[in-house]
Amino acid sequence: MDQELILRVQAGDLRAFDSLTLADYPRLFRVARGILRDRSRAEDATQQAYLDIWRNIRRLRDPSKFDGWSYRILVHACYAEAKRTPKWQSDTGLPPAHEPVAGDTYGAVLDRDELEQGFRQLSVDHRVVIVLHFLLDMTLEQVAETLDIPRGTVYSRLSRAMDSMRSAMRSGSRVDASARSQQESLS
Q1: Where do the domains of the chain lie, and which CATH numbers do they carry?
Q2: How much is the pTM?
Q3: How far is 184 from 110, CA to CA, in rounded Å?
């Protein structure tokens, strides 16, 4: 991010903040969407993050650290948004008439759905670490710095998250195997 732009925002320049927001929104929204798995909730969290950035930008001592600092604010906004969301979510899949019937395509849809369901079962703490590490290609040390938590905590959260995903994939593959065999018998 342009450090001069950040300095202008720190000085209270609203137009500079508008420019910053327009240029930076896709970066933060992508992370929020990855964490929350819902477009409207991600939009709410991203908007809240920008409000918090505007309110607290004068506290940012080093403008070159804006990206990590803004990720930390966004993650806090995602935690707050996740707490506001009901524990249940409707499972609105495709109606049977619209499901793909080709073997490879059908398998790909099932695999994607299985991954998504496994990811939704993770805690927000675990999703945050996965998104920052894999989506943003942050090192685990950068994740720890961004979240302001010990490196060991990042390692354990990532390990537990991956174990949970593997477990969900294994249990899902048993269900998918029976669904696939039913689909094949109908064909």
Answers
A1: 3-84 (1.10.1740.10), 96-186 (1.10.10.10)
A2: 0.75
A3: 14
